[in-house]
Specification:
CATH architecture: 3-Layer(aba) Sandwich
Mean pLDDT: 86
Strand content: 35-45%
Number of strands: 5
CATH topology: Trna Endonuclease, Chain: A, domain 1
Strand order of the largest sheet: 1-2-3-4-5
Largest sheet: 5 strands, mixed
Oligomer: single chain
Number of domains: 1
């Protein structure tokens, strides 16, 4: 289990959430390929592989409600994630399916509540 440290800034909360997300995904059989992948202005929190898929994962960590996805992911962020997917796949030339997942985390007293939305962006 990820050590639980009281966060005092949104950045610290985000780092805790990403650490928890990484462990969560590993426990579900994902192989983490990259954390905080960057290319120019594009950034993806986690890039993972499971079976024959590359999964681009945006992690959102909050202290409050995580049910309203529209408030957590802007249209600009969606476009940015789709651009990142295209750039990554063009550079890595893997012949696999890919998807963008959202991993929404709400910090509670001892851990995190997890809401994993698979294939959540751009693939509808």
């Amino acid at each position: 289990m990820v050590p639980f440290i009281k966060s005092s800034t949104p950045q610290e909360l985000g780092k805790q959430g990403e650490a928890y997300a990484r462990k969560y995904l590993l426990s579900k059989g994902y192989k983490i390929l990259h954390q905080n992948w960057r290319y120019k202005h594009l950034e993806v929190d986690l890039i993972a592989k499971k079976e024959n898929r590359i999964i681009f994962i945006e992690v959102k960590t909050r202290l409050s409600d995580i049910s309203n996805v529209e408030e957590l992911i802007s249209a600009n962020k969606e476009r940015s994630l789709l651009q990142a997917l295209n750039v990554y796949m063009a550079h890595n030339k893997e012949d696999v399916f890919c998807q963008i997942d959202l991993l929404l985390l709400r910090k509670n007293v001892t851990s995190f509540e997890v809401r994993h939305l698979q294939n959540a962006i751009g693939m509808h």
